[in-house]
Amino acid sequence: MKYVDEFRDGDTARHLAERIAAEADPARRYAFMEFCGGHTHAIARYGVASLLPANVRMIHGPGCPVCVLPIGRVDQAIALALQHGAIVCTYGDTMRVPASGGLSLLKAKARGGDIRMVYSAADALKVARQNPAREVVFFAIGFETTTPPTALVLRQAAAEDLANFSVLCCHVLTPAAITHVLNSPEVAQWGTVPLDGFVGPAHVSIVIGSAPYEPFAAAYRKPVVIAGFEPLDMMQAILMLVRQVNDGRAEVENEFVRAVGREGNAAAIAAMAEVFEHRESFEWRGLGTVPDSALRLRPAYARFDAEQRFSLTYQPVPDHKRCECGAILRGVKTPSDCSLFGTVCTPDNPMGSCMVSSEGACAAHYAYGRFKDIPVVAA
Amino acid sequence: MCLALPALVVERRDGDEALVELGGVRKSVSLALVPAAAVGDYVVVHVGFAIGLLDPEEAARTLALFAEAAEAAR
């Protein structure tokens, strides 16, 4: 496939690996956080980590929207279906996120909830048009990539004056989350989790551009390299980060220039700004309450806001006490540090959110890396 | 969640709709967020919406950068 296959060439990956090994200073260690779940998936699937020298380590960040969705929000969506009788539409990954009482949206569907998996927010709107006598709620999650489609759908619903459609808005913001990771006690108290730089999101940056990372790179003195999701993009970005660290620079660089500009997608930014405003605070799974890190509907769209329409109140719910997703999302622990990993918690039966989406750190490690944890013993 | 792939615009339809092709699969998506996209362009498609355009010149430049690294490694 064009613009895909040529960024997966094995020989080129090995050459890039040689460059990284040649330029990484053997006297120091490099730790880079890939913020985005897409990068976590690419690193695990293509064995990028095994191509890196031992002193260059990748740390999974909180950039998988499914992984950071707190239990309390899934509970709200389940309540809409089971208690309010609404048709709840959502993206596939969201269906399996564990909620309270051993439930998930998928299990609530088995209990009779009218919960439907959609490919696009536009499909949720179609369901509303087809079922005028029923309340239809789109459970909207995701970073700045899925937000513009939700905004367009809300604009369309307003234009059509659809009376039975609303959105449970759980859209979150990338720059706020990266800042929060750096402010977390483990990272702020230097030494426990040293982070030397970030691989910036690919598709989020198509929408918001590279500029939003600039104040962050300057304030925290951390280099950011925006990278595409193919393995060669990752390798090149890691090389660029190693060079920045070696030079003592902390700049925003863009490896994904074929799709990302400095200013982002103006049409998408305008649609988001028209429909959404900042929430003062929002709970993230694993990160706790993060100020200014999420969006809600503007007052002009209040009639489409499921939280107001159904008078929902948010009830935080703690994770399973042995689940380490929170620490994994902050880069403090790895999947194999968790006692639930691969035993009771598997992709078929996820206990924690990092095991749900294939982009979660635990699911990626389970699918592609778990046998590397077992030492090879000659027979 | 973040799965988005480059797809070729093969036909513009009514309103913002367009037919795109990806590895032999054809699908109708919305071009509302990339109104400038024309037939023959590559767009990045995510959850049924094109969220951005791919710049073929910049893609070629990135591939050239990889080739340079390969050259330097030899």
From TrEMBL, chain A:
UniProt-listed InterPro entries: Hyd_form_HypD, HypD_1, HypD_2_sf
Keyword terms: Iron, Metal-binding
Domain of life, source organism: Bacteria
GO MF term set: 4 iron, 4 sulfur cluster binding; carbon monoxide binding; iron ion binding
One of the GO biological process terms: protein maturation
Matches recorded under Pfam families: HypD
NCBIfam families recorded: hypD (TIGR00075)
UniProt similarity note: Belongs to the HypD family.
Name of the molecule in the record: Hydrogenase maturation factor
Species per Swiss-Prot/TrEMBL record: Rubrivivax gelatinosus (strain NBRC 100245 / IL144)
Gene it is expressed from: hypD
From TrEMBL, chain B:
Gene3D superfamilies: 2.30.30.140
Any one GO molecular-function label of the UniProt entry: iron ion binding
InterPro entries tied to this protein: Hydrogenase_HupF/HypC
Source domain of life: Bacteria
GO biological process, one term: protein maturation
Family assignment from sequence similarity: Belongs to the HupF/HypC family.
Protein's UniProt name: Hydrogenase expression/formation protein HypC
